[in-house]
Each structure stands twice: as structure tokens, then as C-alpha cells.
Write a structure and sequence with these properties.
alpha/beta, Ubiquitin-like (UB roll), Rossmann fold, nine-stranded mixed sheet, three-stranded mixed sheet, about 40% helix, disordered C terminus, cell membrane
């Protein structure tokens, strides 16, 4: 009997341990099973994504076959493709769209560009070009867009007949770009206002000269109009009336003064010399 008691006690300990293990399994088993399942699913997803990525980057299904362009007027598709390095046969998934846009944006005519991938095998390029509004004389001749940005040197093949904006220096533009751009914007505003009030070809504007006192207009016939600052629309209306009056009298002006700030309504005109005086011939 003395030896039987420890043996029974051992059986009891074993039974208690088994029961404790069963309780632990009942309590923690479902959670552990979920954790194992989730781990397995995660490993499967990671492996699957790696295999899927490898397939997408190597499959001929996603090779570039066609690139379409919209918005091109001055820039050419071939030039933009060369700048970007975009070629048929590249994998669409491997394209760096932002890098393609930056490369195409270096073309002087391109103002903004948007590249889009169209799976499985094409790319579209939407281009917004600079619209030249005038020629700015900044040491060299530069094309000026509607936001007063000198975006390109004038080239012989550009074939543009635009109003000149003079009186600004390249050094001033480089040293104080914001101020120079502001003056150029003012000149463009005057140019647009003139075009709205003087549609006639005879009265075509040839030059807008930026001076400390304001703006000077040079018309196609050589007439200089000292516009000064402010009240542009009112001054241009007075200019139209003066030009009509001179025309009705058979006269022409060398200089028309509209810059009298003390008397804004006054117009002073320096008439052109008669033909006999300009050429030295005697009047008939």
C-alpha cells in the first residue's frame, strides 16, 4: 500500500496534465488555427504577387504597340519620342510616366504634357503647347507666350509675324525675372487692348516699347503713340478718333501724345512733314 499511493498520484498528475492540455486546446486552438491559416495565406499572397509581377513585366501581352499624340501644333511626335526614349516593345508596367513627362517637357514648344498608359499595349500623350503672343527683344528675339514667358528663341523656320516688345534687357530679366515678367505682361495687355479697338490692317501695331514713363506704340505706318500709364482703353478710343480725323483731312502724324497726366483728355499731335519737305522736291 505504501508503494501504491505514489503510483496513483502519478496517474492523477498525468490525467490532470492531459485535461489541462485539452482545456488549452479548446481555449486557444481556434485562435492558433486562424493564425496559422493567415500566415499561410500571407505567404501565398506574397509568393503570388511576386510571380504575378514577374509575369506582368515579362509577358509579351503588355508590350507597347502604339503611342498616340494630341494637341501637337509646332512640336512633332518624333521629336518627343526621341526626347523621352519611348519605343515600341517596351513593357507598359515598367514605364516611368513621370520621367517620360519630364523629358518631353524639355521641348521648347511644350508647355505641359500628360502621359497615360492604356493597358495592355498603348500609350497616349496629351500635349499643351505655348501659344506665341509676341516677340520680346531680350538681346536676342524670344517668342513670348500669353503668360509673358519667353519660352524659345526665334528660329528662321518658325514663320511667325508678331508684334515686337522692346525696351527690356536680358540682364534685367535674369536679375529680376518677376519684375521683368510684370512689365512684359503689361505690354501684352496693351497689345490685346489695341487689337480689340483697332482691327484694321492699316492700323496694325508693329511694336510696343516699354519705357519708364509707360508704353509707346509704334504703328505699322511708323506713327509713334506715347501712351503713358493707365487708362489704356480710354486712350485707345481717343487714338482711334484722332486717327480717323487725320485721315479725313488727308493728314498723317509722326507722333501722337496721349500721356498728359495733368490733362488726360488732351491729345497732342506732331504731323508728318509734307512729301515735298521729306524728299526735297518742290511742291506742285
Amino acid at each position: 500500500m505504501a508503494f501504491g499511493q505514489p503510483k496513483n498520484r502519478r496517474h492523477q498528475d498525468v490525467a490532470q496534465k492531459k485535461e489541462a492540455m485539452k482545456g488549452a486546446v479548446r481555449t486557444h486552438g481556434p485562435g492558433l488555427a486562424k493564425a496559422i491559416l493567415l500566415t499561410g495565406l500571407t505567404c501565398a499572397l506574397v509568393w503570388g504577387s511576386i510571380e504575378l509581377r514577374h509575369w506582368a513585366l515579362t509577358s509579351p501581352f503588355f508590350l507597347l504597340k502604339e503611342t498616340s499624340f494630341s494637341g501637337l501644333q509646332r512640336a512633332h511626335a518624333g521629336e518627343l519620342l526621341k526626347l523621352s526614349g519611348l519605343t515600341v516593345g517596351q513593357n507598359l508596367w515598367s514605364l516611368d510616366v513621370a520621367a517620360l513627362e519630364r523629358a518631353m517637357d524639355t521641348h521648347p514648344w511644350v508647355r505641359d504634357v500628360k502621359v497615360r498608359r492604356h493597358f495592355p499595349s498603348s500609350v497616349s500623350v496629351e500635349v499643351s503647347e505655348h501659344v506665341p503672343a509676341a516677340l520680346a527683344v531680350l538681346s536676342d528675339l524670344y517668342l513670348l507666350d500669353e503668360d509673358a514667358e519667353p519660352f524659345k528663341r526665334l528660329q528662321p523656320g518658325d514663320g511667325l509675324d508678331l508684334v515686337l516688345i522692346t525696351g527690356m534687357e536680358r540682364e534685367a530679366y535674369l536679375s529680376d525675372e518677376s519684375r521683368t515678367r510684370e512689365r512684359l505682361r503689361e505690354a501684352l495687355a496693351v497689345l490685346r487692348a489695341y487689337a480689340a479697338t483697332q482691327p484694321g490692317k492699316r492700323d496694325r501695331l508693329s511694336e510696343v516699347r516699354v519705357v519708364p514713363e509707360g508704353m509707346v506704340l509704334v504703328l505699322a505706318d511708323g506713327t509713334e503713340v506715347l501712351l503713358g500709364q493707365g487708362e489704356t482703353d480710354a486712350k485707345l478710343k481717343r487714338l482711334a478718333r484722332v486717327r480717323d480725323e487725320l485721315k479725313s483731312r488727308g493728314l498723317a502724324a509722326d507722333v501722337i501724345h496721349l500721356e498728359n497726366r495733368a490733362r488726360p483728355g488732351w491729345v497732342a499731335v506732331k504731323l508728318s512733314s509734307p512729301v515735298s519737305e521729306r524728299t526735297g522736291a518742290s511742291a506742285q
